[in-house]
Amino acid sequence: DTVLTQSPALAVSPGERVTISCRASESVSTGMHWYQQKPGQQPKLLIYGASNLESGVPARFSGSGSGTDFTLTIDPVEADDTATYFCQQSWNAWTFGGGTKLELK
Amino acid sequence: EVQLVESGGGLVQPGRSLKLSCAASGFTFSNYYMAWVRQAPKKGLEWVATISTSGSRTYYPDSVKGRFTISRDNAKSSLYLQMNSLKSEDTATYYCARQKSFNYGSYYFDYWGQGVMVTVSS
Prior knowledge:
The complex is a heterodimer.
Chain A: E1 4-6, E2 9-12, E3 18-24, E4 32-37, E5 44-48, E6 52-53, E7 61-66, E8 69-74, E9 83-89, E10 95-96, E11 100-104
Parallel strand pairs in A: 2-11
Antiparallel strand pairs in A: 1-3, 3-8, 4-5, 4-9, 5-6, 7-8, 9-10, 9-11
Chain B: E1 3-7, E2 10-12, E3 18-25, E4 33-39, E5 45-51, E6 58-59, E7 68-73, E8 78-83, E9 92-103, E10 106-112, E11 116-120
Parallel strand pairs in B: 2-11
Antiparallel strand pairs in B: 1-3, 3-8, 4-5, 4-9, 5-6, 7-8, 9-10, 9-11
């Protein structure tokens, strides 16, 4: 299985730039996608294909990377961005990272 | 508007069976791969099953292979998950999700239902 590793938590101040990383145990090419999940809600797609912004998602969100190292960037961070962010690969079946909980100071 | 509405969850004893359903609307159901993804309480997301547009191909992780069966009825725009030999570790919220391809053979989850809770306990 392709294992995705994310840092568990981050804390930033509103208006700052934050990068959330995801490392794959093997190359997934650009088959990496990012989701936002707020408490009590279903996940919401933000980025697909490593760097493509899903329709309706604010341009403050961006994605980059290929191979094994990927990044989700939020710039600038807003209070409403408090959530858990999951990466997911689709190169070898489908697996998710453990999630990064983003808190605002 | 794309809508996915799950049903069929509840409390079930270990070793018993349960069948989940997902009613889809707002898109041409037969054109999309569909999937089930679960989330144990306070835990991350785990892909559970995927089915092709016609239903001829199905995919499972080892954790549920041989116990869970995904199926679909394109005439009814409905997705199903038959869960047999349930274990306590199957306790989770189960989400129905639409899958979309951005490259041949590479699918992501673009719409999710609200989820349905399944609790496996004696």
